[in-house]
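Recall from the previous chapter that SMILES is a line notation for molecules. Here it describes fe (ii) ion.
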Amino acid sequence: MTDHDIRRTRVHTPDLPEHDPDDPAESAVIAGLARSWPRRAAVKKPEVDLDALFEPHRSDFPEQMLPFAEHPRYLALDEPQQARLRAWAWIAYNKSVVDIEQYVVNPGFALITADVFGFGPSDTVVTGVLQAMVDEQYHTLMHQQANALTRRRRGWALPESVLPLCPTVRRQRTAVAQADDPRAAALVQLAYTTVAETSISAYLALLTGDAALQPVNRATVAVHRRDELCHASLAGGLLTAVLTELDDTDQVVLLDALGAAVAAFTGADTSTWAAILAHEQVPGGDELVADTIASTDGRPVVQDCSAIRRLCAALGLGDELDARWPWPS
Ligand SMILES: [Fe+2]
Ligand SMILES: [Fe+2]
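With both inputs in hand, we obtain:
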């Protein structure tokens, strides 16, 4: 093999051994996901020419998803001002996804690959989790590129530095800091990762069903969502394995953290809109934010976390979780 051949060679994931039924952490689902990754993952597919998909007359974000879409202060804005706020909503949506991938999901997955919980994950489990971490890094790139494209094609600055850290990440950091010891902190991180991974596809689906939306944006979200449907199975398998192995004390810590994580992921995010409206100097922006907080306060608005409920119920822990978070009926 010449130097030229070596430079052209991509490293292939070697064939994985058959599923080991004696390894409690290695479900058949995780083994199947690890084997299929080279064929199904977005990072393994040819790149799409996003510029060619951009249609300037299309909206960057579904107007009905703006929390103040029917507020008189919003309706009083002219169309270019409303279009800027829709573009901001898309920028903020992407930043929220990126914050969660970078600061919640991948650090949580790394606890498994580093065997922080001491379960000795098999090569197949470590491979499956590392593949998901590669996916998350690629998703981060995809959403960053989507924002760069929006800024470039619209000709608007829309700087992400205006936006606060995603509220879910802030809540996760507070919970980790308040944990009693490093092991409890790791369990809290795992809980937030698991809730993120089992609910993000619902968050992404909010944008894939709007036929009038900017095609680039729909494509970005749809490609990401295909990976996340697999990650939900991976995270569910990992949670089942960990919950089964933990002693009673650790199990309580993890269940407490799952309840707190569900509350965090389903909470409203008005700090982001407050920052955007202030930056845009929208007339009556303070009133808009106050009314939005009043109208969304206490209502779960963002993500469908019912998968966590089903996973815990399958382990006979559904009532334990219900006691920690008031599920809407
Ligand atoms: Fe992702
Ligand atoms: Fe994921």
